[in-house]
Amino acid sequence: MSIDTTTAELADAELASLLAEDAGRRLLEIRAELGFADGPALKDAGDAGSQRLLAAALARHRPKDAVLSEEAVDDPVRLGADRVWIVDPLDGTREFAEEGRSDWAVHVALWQAGALVAGAVALPAVGVTLSSATIAPPPAGPAGPARLVASRTRAPQLVTDVTEKIGGVVIPMGSAGAKASAVIRGEADVYLHAGGQYEWDSAAPVAVALAAGLHATRIDGSPLRYNQPDPLLPDLVICRPELAETVLAAIRASSTG
Which residues of the sequence carry a binding annotation for Mg(2+) 2 (predicted)? Predict the structure, then answer.
């Protein structure tokens, strides 16, 4: 099904999935059309093309809702709205512009009256979309050290410290959505980030992670809050629930010395 051909009213979670999937298809088309010779042009085209598709679809299907997007001017009307779509049209622009890389994503989430109520993360290059409506808890992980996913280019020192304290191993990976999806799919156990993100980087992954029964909070254990006046949301931890206290204790120990 495509949002371009759907005429019936869609449930929010279904719409989120269709939006993410259609934007992902458009991004794959842009990759094929432009190739990888001019990285900056490919990045710009990907950001703009996905944003246009998502903006048009939301205007069509949810014209009364507000939108917060990485690729659009922040409209303060969202602060008084009951429903706000939080989207990242292309999460992992660097990876999108590198031939052979699949660790980039499209994020679509809905915040309503103080909570994330729907979300989808599309991984277009591997043909996977994770939806808060249909996600299941991840399968049991293999025996052995905890697997932490972290930025392949700018992992914070905190990741190294926590990995050492819990006896884990680090798996370098690209976009925030790809890293969160690795935990949601059972390919990793912990996603830890500190040092700078915005609401659109985590809203959809967190919506899906929570629906899958995973732990998702700030690194101090406090809730992740969305649709705030300043969309900066600089840190988070997503992990298997049985590892949450161990990971949070390691973060506290790292922070205190």
Answer: 90
pLDDT tens-digit series, residues 111-130: 999 999 999 999 999 999 99
Whole-model pTM above 0.85?
yes
Nearest to 74 by CA among 208, 229, 252: 229
Tens of pLDDT, residues 72-104: 999 999 999 999 999 999 999 999 999 999 999
Answer yes or no: is 201 a known binding residue: yes
235 is in an annotated binding site: no
Q: Which amino acid appears at position 121 of this protein?
A: V
Which CATH code is given to the segment(s) 147-255? 3.40.190.80
Residue 221 token pair = 């254990």
10 assigned binding-site residue: no
Strand segments, DSSP code E, in 113-183 are 115-123, 128-131, 147-151, 169-173
> Would the annotation count 65 as a binding residue?
no
Is 70 one of the annotated binding-site residues?
A: yes
Start-end of CATH 3.30.540.10 domains in the chain: 12-131
